[in-house]
Amino acid sequence: MHKGRLSAALKKGAIWGFIVIELIFFSIAGEYLSLSGKAFMDYDNMLLLLKQSAPIGIIAMGMSLVMINGNIDLSVGAIFAIAAIVLLDSMTWPIFSGLGDWVIPAAWLLALAAGTALGALNGLIVWKTGVDAFIVTLGAMLGYRGIVFMFNGENPTSHLNWTLVDMAEAQFLGIHTPTWFLLGVTLAIWFVMTQTVHGRNAAAIGDNREAAVNAGIRVGPHMMINFALIGFLAALSAVVFYSESGSVNPNDGRLYELWVITAVVLGGARISGGSGSAIGALGGVIAIQLLRKGLGHIGVDTSTVNLVIGLILIAVLILDRQLNVKGKGELRV
Amino acid sequence: MATLTRQQIASAAAKQGILIAFALFMIAFAFANPKFIGLDNLSSVVRSSAILGVMALGVTFVVISGNLDLSVGSMMSFSTVVVLDLHDKIGPALAIPAMFAMTLALGALIGLLVGYLKLNSLIVTLGMLSAIHGLTLSYSGGKNMDIADKAGTWFSVFGQGSALGVPMPILIFAGLAALLGVMLSKTPFGRKVYAVGGNATAATFSGVPRARTVFTCYLLSAACVAVAALIQASRSMGAQNTVGQGLELEVLAAVILGGASLMGGSGTIFKTVVGVLILGFIQNGLLLMGLQFYVQFVVTWVIIILAVWLDIAAKRGKLWSRIA
């Protein structure tokens, strides 16, 4: 095997190797440390883990597309909150009162449209003004969050629709509804990234923008589509999560951008663009959720989770650099 | 005087755009509400901006060197919690240096990772944001920190005291701004910071120690965080674990508003101070107009994007981007 390919394979498999190590570690450590008699790798526990990964995971799929394109989106947490408010509040609007349970698809559509529009707005600004996506979405993160607070102040927005709750809590073939959404979105984004012209162009732009422009690829529309898509997915994540919980706090979704970026980077994406995959991002999401659940399982204080995840993120970065240096030979000045 | 072409005027206006906008903004608010430019109001705005401002001074160095620091908010929480906790355990005279040492150690760690190991600063400081938050929670056990004997300690001087009628936070902010301003513009170290941020490869070939310069920038940033934490702790004499949460983004917003480029190599301490004041006065002005507190976030969003947009539009000589 070629040396470069070996390191590429190592990197691709690394996240799954890490997941296996986590599973083994928490299973064994759990035998000695866990207060509950249940095994860590209990079937229901694992199903629950996938379900809990869904909100972050769905957004992470969008982020892997945005990051392979060489951009970043810090406003996803705020879009998530806005979409949640639109979802729950619109179900109480008088114009929908005659719809019965048909209010559900209407509210879903409105929430998804809101998320898509906000994401597209980010994309349009990045495209037309040429301001760096980091700054645009940093501003949007403040601005969108401001809109969330302007809606209802510090108060939560609540509305429970039992049909919706039943739908969200349902299990089809033993798997929860949110997990189905996560798997579906992963598959769709995998398809977009690897099998479509848009996906390959997006990666080309992230890898070498100048070369992509010279090859005749239009940079702007691709970036805007990706931002609209991540806005849509942030809204979808909110739709999936709040259908069940029925109450949104104005601070909900804060730091989601952080978790999402961490997951995507763990999954092999590079902040400078051009690399990353949907499957890797799914691995990253699962690895983080395993860590949170596992540390809870062995009775470690939940606050330690932040510490561990931060350190792992940095460790991955160091490892990635080492692998790269070995793969390409020393290229340093 | 040579006649100026329209382009030159336009580019000069764009260069000083943020100052001009600031002046217009102040005048408009002053007409809308005369209280706005009262001495009491001005002083209270600057005083409440001081914590953000002190942190922004340090981050300016980091940004000019071509890096980011997203960990200052959670580092500030950590330092505030530590100094409040140690205050009752070992007394303020020892607590303050101990807090500084711990904060600088965190800064040194980041400097090591970004400077010497050449890791991406965005990801490193994102990781540190999370890690330090966890550290704070472990340290405090999630409890709020409070000084037991609030009346019987001189610790309140940094946040609540005043000298010659000027509140202490303003004095600290102004003094530190002057010191760091001179350091950045008048010393060899300052020039190295610009060189490293402007073109790291060229700087390396010219014998500028990139790693050590970046390392020092993060140390400076941590030192500023420690000062900010001192003001915060001394002003409130108690704090939650999340006292600095989200500040990293406001700090960055102030630095960017001031006109520093995230690509590195440009920005000044003076401009950052202007950026900090703009944020502070916008917040204050909107409140005086009777608007909701949260409107400021939306206004900040619009202003940040407009400021950066006009800045780069002036550089490329075209309003709209060339992105096809």
- Work out the helicity level of chain A: over 70%
* CATH C-level category of chain B: Mainly Alpha
Would you identify the CATH architecture of chain B?
A: Orthogonal Bundle
Q: Report helical residue fraction of chain B.
A: over 70%
* Alpha plus pi helix count of chain B: 14
Number of strands of chain A: 4
The helix/strand series of chain B, from N terminus to C terminus, equals: HHHHHHEHEEHHHHEHHH
CATH topology of chain A: ABC transporter involved in vitamin B12 uptake, BtuC
Using only C-alpha atoms, the radius of gyration of chain A works out to 21 Å
Please, what is the average pLDDT of chain B? 86
What is the succession of H and E elements of chain A?
Answer: HHHHHEHEEHHHHEHHH
The CATH topology of chain B comes to ABC transporter involved in vitamin B12 uptake, BtuC
Oligomer: heterodimer
Question: Key terms for this structure?
Answer:
heterodimer, A: 333 residues, mainly alpha, ABC transporter involved in vitamin B12 uptake, BtuC, two-stranded antiparallel sheet, 13 helices, 4 strands, 2% strand, disordered C terminus, B: 324 residues, two-stranded antiparallel ribbon, globular
Describe this structure in words.
The complex is a heterodimer of chains A (333) and B (324). By secondary structure, chain A is mainly α. Chain A is built from 13 helices and four strands. Chain A has a two-stranded antiparallel ribbon with strand order 1-4. Chain B is mainly alpha-helical and 324 residues long. In chain B, α3 crosses α9 (188-198), α4 (72-90) runs antiparallel to α5 and α9 crosses α11. The chains are: A mainly alpha (333), B mainly alpha (324). At the A-B interface, α4, α5, α10, α11 and α13 of A face α6, α10, α12 and α14 of B.
